[in-house]
UniProtKB/TrEMBL annotation:
PANTHER family in alphabetical order: PROTEIN CONSERVED IN THE GREEN LINEAGE AND DIATOMS 27, CHLOROPLASTIC, PTHR34214
Keyword set, alphabetical order: Membrane, Transmembrane, Transmembrane helix
Origin organism lineage: Bacteria, Bacillati, Cyanobacteriota, Cyanophyceae, Nostocales
Protein name, as recorded: CGLD27 family protein
Organism from which the protein derives: Halotia branconii CENA392
Listed transmembrane segments: 40-63, 69-93, 147-165
InterPro entries reported for this sequence: CGLD27-like
Length: 166
């Protein structure tokens, strides 16, 4: 639902931070961050599984599964993690951009092109509303994404240790 944030706001509707947030929250990829934990992990697992379509053949070419099964699995899992990291990076950057736009006291916008940018100072009530959205809606999403990155890094360390054991 896109709506005008303020009736006297000179910022075009599609460039208003609240509307950017609503658009991001409704988009198919970014809304997955707002799901409950089980659905979120399921989505990440699907991305990882689909990434095996590329990582699996590459790992098999390097480590034939019939000879080096453990190395094949570890190499394929690490390669499939690249797809997850790329997806998570896109999610993090999108949410971080909207967080910065909502949290800022000023809004930079373009009226008709890159050459005529303007800045609008948010009134206190709009700034307060936007910062509450950041605190209660966006900050938990960014923390979830950071925790996911940390978990992937931990799994990579575990995989490296297991690799050296074989």
């Amino acid at each position: 639902m896109i709506r005008s944030s303020v009736s006297n706001c000179p910022v075009p509707i599609d460039q208003q931070p609240l509307n950017e947030y609503e658009e991001l929250k409704a988009s198919w990829l970014f809304r997955d961050c707002t799901l409950n934990l089980q659905e979120y992990i399921t989505t990440i697992a699907w991305i990882w599984g689909l990434s095996w379509l590329v990582a699996g053949p590459v790992a098999a070419a390097s480590f034939p599964p019939n000879k080096y099964l453990a190395h094949f699995i570890l190499c394929g899992a690490a390669g499939a993690s690249v797809g997850v990291v790329l997806g998570l990076t896109r999610l993090y950057l999108g949410w971080h951009y909207v967080r910065d736009r909502l949290y800022s006291t000023t809004v930079f916008y373009e009226e008709s092109g890159w050459y005529d940018g303007q800045t609008w100072m948010k009134p206190p009530e709009i700034l307060t509303r936007d910062r509450l959205i950041v605190t209660y809606d966006i900050k938990p999403i960014l923390q979830r994404l950071q925790l996911t990155f940390a978990s992937l890094a931990g799994l990579l360390v575990i995989g490296t240790i297991v690799w050296h054991l074989f």
